[in-house]
Amino acid sequence: MDNESLFDSPIADMKKARLALLASIPFLFSIATSASPADDPGIVGRWKRTKDNGEWVVYDYRRDGRLFRATPSHTEPVPFGRYRLAGDVIHFEDSPEHYTPVRFVVETGSCSGHTGATLFLHDQATGAAYGCYFRIDPAPAGDGRHGIAPGIERIN
Fold first, then answer.
1. pLDDT tens sequence across 73-126
2. Most exposed among 2, 31, 35, 138, judged by the fewest C-beta atoms under 10 Å?
3. Which residues are within 8 A (CB) of 1 and not within 5 positions of it... i.e. 6 or more apart?
4. What is the spatial distance between Cα 50 and Cα 32, in angstroms, rounded to a whole number?
5. Which residues lie below 8 Å from residue 30, measured CB to CB, with a gap of 6+?
6. Residues 56, 36: Cα–Cα separation, whole Å
7. In this structure, are residues 58 and 73 in contact, taking their beta carbons and an 8 Å threshold?
8. Quick check: helix, strand or coil at residue 30?
9. What is the pLDDT of residue 42?
10. Would you give the distance in Å from CA 31 to the centre of its chain?
11. C-alpha–C-alpha distance, residues 25 and 23, integer Å
12. At 82, which helix (H) or strand (E)?
């Protein structure tokens, strides 16, 4: 039997297929351990943080993993990279400010004078609190309001 016929045999094809399947196992594990944004619907939505001096910021976590941000200088939400969840950690991707991963918890609480769904962020390494954010309900469909500013006016 020559070498060429050995590599073209059905047994060799099965061995190649088996090796390809085994090689894909690490990839399958990486998919399983990397949660998508939609896996935790609790974080999806708009979250506002207000400082004592009146400054505010709103982050809009979209179900598809996109992240938007609005500030007093940009009241319409602007793209701010992407995010993905891994357990209780938010990983930011393509963030213009190079945000590092943070731990998060969503629970009922009080934040900036608002009671309800509250997002707490903490430094992943030190546990230092980054502050709290309260949920902003988006404007009802068809009410003619757009962007973040009308929602802020409604809840202030």
1. 999 999 999 999 999 999 999 999 999 999 999 999 999 999 999 999 999 999
2. 2
3. none
4. 36
5. none
6. 28
7. no
8. helix
9. 78
10. 15
11. 6
12. strand 74-86
Label residue 151 by pLDDT band (50, 70, 90).
very low
Domain 37-155 is found in CATH 2.40.10.120:
no
pTM of the predicted model, to two decimals? 0.64
> Where are the alpha helices (H) located in the chain, listed in sequence order?
3-7, 10-33, 148-155
* Tokens linked to 138: 């988006």
- Which tokens is 84 given? 């993905």
Q: Which two tokens stand for residue 126?
A: 């030190």
H or E stretch covering 155: helix 148-155
> What is the C-alpha separation between 127 and 123, in angstroms, rounded?
5
What single DSSP character describes residue 38? G
